[in-house]
């Protein structure tokens, strides 16, 4: 009997150990199982590193096309080694009781990101919010807060950014009167706008009500200042906006960058020599397109585009390995070691979206992304 118990204990111990160290590398594009054997459900995600642990937040998707709307909320996982992830549950739940709530079940919650505020000791989540049954018309930023990295997060508010503030690099024409026809026009994407929508003065149109904010990211600089990057002006132009000290609102300092370039999927990093790098994409709905790299010496720019960072086949370059950027992850304890994180969307069966994580390689002041079937962080040694 004693022997049987011993064997049983060893078996349990073994299976736990196996589970814990199941993965020893990244396998981009493959099903990536969590500690329960379920494909990780954290799309359009971002990572927070806090107290020796990585936390991965992302859109929880369900099966089918309906999975492109928020039926559950924002999922969070934790990991010590970046390969093996523990399901920590739903960090922010949609509101299933009140269909009029901002985050009512069926709204759209995309690209959630979490940062930690040292002054308030709070975890702050920002996400792209589209109100229920309005398509992508609302273009709002949602904010939620928690005392713990794994939540539960409490939904605070949503807004259109920088209401009543001109960007630091505003141009004279922005301040001119906006035609009524343009005020009432709604345009969900670039197909219905001219190549250079400056003529429409979308910034001026949204000055009073706040600027549109869709694809987004957050970035905390070395000095603790946080920034919100979001696709604005009907996606035509990206904004980089400084957040208040508590990370819950805007200071009103912001810039327009990449005007009329329709940059989506903004992700950003900073190297030890103080240079900022940006990787984003063109705006083609769920379809992949060539990634775009840019660099700057200051977060507010000027930003210089450096072309497509993908090195590989024509197909890989044209589709960024069939994916779209979502976050750039600095690896703790390694100098200038970053992971490019992207989504391979599956809009017809959203839950099956795959994760493309690749090492960022530096070459002549630029970044190079190359496909790897499998790899681990030793590539950075
Ligand atoms: C591309 C964006 O990057 C995604 O986050 C999502 O908004 C889709 N467009 C919707 O078409």
Protein model, in words:
There is one protein chain. Helices cover 9% and strands 37% of the residues. By secondary structure, the protein is mainly beta. It has one domain: Tachylectin-2, Chain A, CATH 2.115.10.20. The strands form six sheets. A four-stranded antiparallel β-sheet has the order 1-2-3-4, with no helix packed on it. A four-stranded antiparallel β-sheet has the order 5-6-7-8, with no helix packed on it. The longest helix has 19 residues, at 2-20. Mean pLDDT is 93; it is low at 1-19. It binds (2R,3S,4R,5S)-2-(hydroxymethyl)piperidine-3,4,5-triol. It comes from Flammeovirga pacifica. Belongs to the glycosyl hydrolase 43 family. One of its GO terms (biological process) is carbohydrate metabolic process.
């Amino acid at each position: 009997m004693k022997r049987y118990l011993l064997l049983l204990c060893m078996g349990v111990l073994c299976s736990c150990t196996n589970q814990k160290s199941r993965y020893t590398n990244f396998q981009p594009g493959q099903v990536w199982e969590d500690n329960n054997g379920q494909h990780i459900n954290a799309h359009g995600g971002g990572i927070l590193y806090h107290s020796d642990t990585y936390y991965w937040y992302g859109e929880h998707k369900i099966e089918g096309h309906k999975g492109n709307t928020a039926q559950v909320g924002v999922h969070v996982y934790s990991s010590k080694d970046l390969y093996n992830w523990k399901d920590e549950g739903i960090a922010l739940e949609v509101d299933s009781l009140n269909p009029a709530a901002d985050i009512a079940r069926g709204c759209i919650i995309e690209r959630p990101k979490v940062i930690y505020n040292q002054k308030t000791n709070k975890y702050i989540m920002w996400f792209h919010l589209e109100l229920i049954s309005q398509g992508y018309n609302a273009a709002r930023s949602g904010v939620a807060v928690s005392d713990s990295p794994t939540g539960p997060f409490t939904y605070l508010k949503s807004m259109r950014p920088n209401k009543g503030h001109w960007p630091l690099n505003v141009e004279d024409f922005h301040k001119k009167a906006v035609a009524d026809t343009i005020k009432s026009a709604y345009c969900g994407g670039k197909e219905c706008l001219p190549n250079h929508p400056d003529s429409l003065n979308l910034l001026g149109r949204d000055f009073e009500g706040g600027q549109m904010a869709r694809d987004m990211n957050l970035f905390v600089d070395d000095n603790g200042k946080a920034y919100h990057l979001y696709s604005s002006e009907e996606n035509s132009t990206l904004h980089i906006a400084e957040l208040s000290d508590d990370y819950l609102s805007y200071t009103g300092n912001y810039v327009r960058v990449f005007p009329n370039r329709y940059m989506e999927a903004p992700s950003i990093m900073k190297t030890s020599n103080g240079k900022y790098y940006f990787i984003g994409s063109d705006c083609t709905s769920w379809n992949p397109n060539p990634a775009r790299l840019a660099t700057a010496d200051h977060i507010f720019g000027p930003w210089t585009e450096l072309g497509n960072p993908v090195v590989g086949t024509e197909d890989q370059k044209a589709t960024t390995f069939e994916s779209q950027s979502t976050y750039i992850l600095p690896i703790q304890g390694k100098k200038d070691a970053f992971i490019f994180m992207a989504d391979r969307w599956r809009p017809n069966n959203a839950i099956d979206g795959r994760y493309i994580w690749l090492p960022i390689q530096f070459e002549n002041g630029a970044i190079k992304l190359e496909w790897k079937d499998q790899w681990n962080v030793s590539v950075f040694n």
